[in-house]
Design a protein that fits this description.
Blueprint: H1 2-17, H2 24-28, H3 30-62, H4 66-70, H5 84-92, H6 95-127, H7 132-141, H8 151-159, H9 173-180, H10 183-194, H11 198-206, H12 211-219, H13 224-240, H14 243-248, H15 257-263, H16 270-300
């Protein structure tokens, strides 16, 4: 009797623990299943359309003729398809050169951020230097400052680099150096490193491994999810940035895609401009589709301790 009551109580507790807006008893009925599927399916379709429709609108807009793209009201489906617009946009805008410029800028920013942010986060998390919490707090304070407020001091710095007195204008290093110390990425990495047991660090220290070897041999191999997240954030931020590349690349031949597209927008036919924007966004879309599992794993990693 006692065992039966205990089982019933356990079953009831489990049911309450898993209960949501719709109870399991309601889902067992035919009407409950139908309502649930209709609401869930409708919500899913609405969110998919909300995210995919802008992409569809851009792709189909690029394949319209310029007069059709400019007409009002806009056509949902092109009257005539012009897929050759993408090839024309690539040739007329010389997109290959600007793609290369953007890859150099984004790739360098990614490597520099990893080289700076990962050791910084490891030191704050596991080495625990004196005044480490104060340093982390000052880093996080920078997140509260608007980006526009930092443009002038950063520009003055890159035009006359302290101690070296170098002018970094028209050089990719003008993008790489300001992007190196990213407070948000350091915080993400530190939160992940905090979840790594200290016993691993102590074991490596007993075996004679120094901080650098411990970071390289132990921390980095088990930190791939968060490294993927930080890497994608770094690449996407550098790829889509506009204001800062506009300031530090006055030479039109060294500009990135975002700056070049804005510069030619006045003289370029609208359909070619839209085609160029679609081509410029494809690498980031492909990056997300390829690494979406790593992104989701990294965002949830370390959220539950144990």
């Amino acid at each position: 009797m006692t065992v039966t009551l205990a089982r019933k109580e356990k079953k009831k507790t489990a049911e309450y623990a898993s209960r949501t807006l719709v109870s399991p008893s309601q889902l067992r009925t035919k009407r409950g299943k139908t309502v649930y599927l209709v609401v869930f399916g409708g919500t899913l379709v609405a969110f998919v359309l909300a995210f995919l429709f802008p992409l569809y609108w851009a792709v189909t807009g690029a394949m319209k003729s310029a007069p059709e793209l400019a007409q009002t009201p806009a056509t949902l489906i092109p009257h005539e398809w012009h897929p050759e617009t993408f090839g024309e946009a690539w040739d007329q805008m010389d997109l290959g050169k600007y793609f290369l410029n953007t890859v150099v800028v984004a790739g360098g920013a990614w490597l520099v951020q990893l080289a700076v942010d990962v050791p910084a986060a490891f030191a704050l998390s596991k080495l625990r230097p004196k005044f480490g919490n104060a340093v982390l707090g000052l880093m996080l304070v920078t997140l509260m400052l608007p980006a526009a407020a930092l443009l002038v001091p950063t520009y003055v710095t890159v035009t006359d680099l302290p101690l070296l007195h170098l002018n970094l204008i028209n050089s990719p290093t003008a993008i790489w150096l300001p992007a190196a110390a990213n407070a948000f990425n350091i915080y993400l990495l530190k939160r992940f490193f905090d979840q790594i047991p200290d016993e691993l660090i102590e074991a490596a220290r007993i075996d004679g491994a120094g901080p650098v070897r411990t970071l390289w041999k132990i921390i980095l191999p088990i930190s791939r999810p968060i490294l993927a997240v930080v890497s994608i954030l770094a690449v996407v931020t550098a790829w889509k940035d506009f204001i800062w590349p506009l300031l530090v690349f006055p030479d039109t031949g060294k500009q990135t895609l975002s700056v070049m597209l804005q510069r030619v927008a006045i003289d370029m036919p609208l359909n070619l401009l839209v085609a160029g924007m679609v081509l410029a966004s494809l690498p980031m879309i492909a990056l997300f589709l390829v690494f979406q599992r790593q992104i989701l794993a990294g965002l949830t990693a370390g959220s539950v301790k144990g």
